[in-house]
From TrEMBL:
Keywords: Hydrolase, Membrane, Protease, Serine protease, Transmembrane, Transmembrane helix
Short name of one Pfam family: Peptidase_S49
Family per record: Belongs to the peptidase S49 family.
Alphabetized NCBIfam families for the sequence: SppA_dom
Name this protein carries in UniProt: Signal peptide peptidase SppA
Gene: sppA
Length: 324
């Protein structure tokens, strides 16, 4: 009986070892596939070896995006790229992010003809980026505009009083770390923030005046935060044409670009291989009983906007008004 019990224990140990090595082998294979895919194809965009029109999607909340800027630089250096279409669908974002991408687009436009094709929305920093191109096309029902800057911060003083929470601070000067959500905003604090906003607003108006066939007075009349449909924006000279990709290609034709060239999207570097590897890892995680991450869902629901820092150039519907 003792020998038989030892055999059963040995078999159980062997099964555990086999299970461990099977899982380890699957994980190692997934990592190897991801590394090889990135090494072999990470810098390459299929089809870009032949002459083509490059298309770049700029979507969602605008932030400082070094990968996007690098991609625009690579497009500018690619001899096979004869023209560029920026497909924009964004409510805006940080002014610093919009400024960085604006400058990258202007640098690209010095090398290639660049046009913007607006989808649903190009507002605030999204419109700022569109204005960096030499031609803007929007759908008749697209939302365009919202030229302006804002700063938002919560007031938690009422909640703190209800919870019985107090906050003490020792500062080098009254305006240090102000405005703060933990105490009422004073008039000097409002003046400081307003001066900063107006300076950035003046800069934004200057960009639009420089890039659009409008005088500064005409831009100021439009730069009250208003949004416009594509048809309205055309009349106001905020866009150059209404339509879709075909209209953008027609403009590129006028710039000497062959309209029969294939339009190829330059996607985020290594994104396809990353998603493939991510799918494998999720399948493995599911197989061994590990939970998958919910970060993607949070981002898709717009949770990334909660953590934006700095001056914003962002358009958003007035949800409070809809509730009343």
């Amino acid at each position: 009986m003792a020998l038989r019990a030892d055999d059963i224990i040995d078999r159980r140990r062997l099964r555990r070892k086999l299970t461990f090595w099977r899982v380890a082998t699957l994980i190692a294979a997934a990592i190897a596939i991801a590394i090889f895919g990135y090494w072999a194809f990470g810098d390459a965009v299929p089809g870009t070896g032949r002459n083509h029109i490059a298309q770049v999607s700029i979507e969602g909340t605008i932030v400082e995006d070094e990968e996007l800027i690098d991609r625009l630089e690579r497009i500018g250096k690619a001899d096979a790229v004869k023209g560029v279409i920026l497909t924009i669908d964004s409510p805006g974002g940080t002014t610093a992010g919009g400024e960085a991408i604006f400058e990258a687009v202007r640098s690209l436009a010095e090398k290639k003809p660049v046009t913007a094709q607006v989808g649903t929305l190009a507002a605030s920093a999204g419109y700022m980026i569109a204005s960096a191109t030499d031609h803007i096309v929007a759908r008749k029902s697209s939302i365009v505009g919202s030229i302006g800057v804002l700063v938002q911060y919560p007031d938690l003083t009422g909640l703190m009083e209800k919870l019985g929470i107090g906050l003490e601070s020792i500062k080098s000067s009254p305006l240090k770390a102000e405005p703060s959500p933990f105490n009422p905003t004073t008039e000097p604090e409002r003046q400081m923030i307003r001066a900063m906003i107006l300076d950035s607003y003046d800069w934004f108006v200057g960009l639009v005046t420089e890039r659009r066939p409008l005088s500064r007075e005409e831009v100021l009349a439009l730069a009250d935060g208003s949004v416009f449909t594509g048809r309205q924006a055309l009349k106001l000279k905020l866009v150059d044409a209404v339509g879709g990709e075909d209209v953008a290609i027609e403009w590129l034709k006028e710039q000497g670009v062959d309209p029969d060239l294939e339009v190829i999207e330059w996607k985020k570097k290594g994104s396809g291989n990353f998603l493939f590897a991510q799918s494998i890892m999720r399948a493995i995680a599911s197989a061994i009983g590990l939970p998958s991450s919910g970060a993607d869902l949070i981002r898709d629901l717009g949770g990334d906007r909660i953590f934006l820092d700095g001056l914003l150039s962002l358009w958003q519907p007035d949800t409070a008004a809809r509730r009343d």
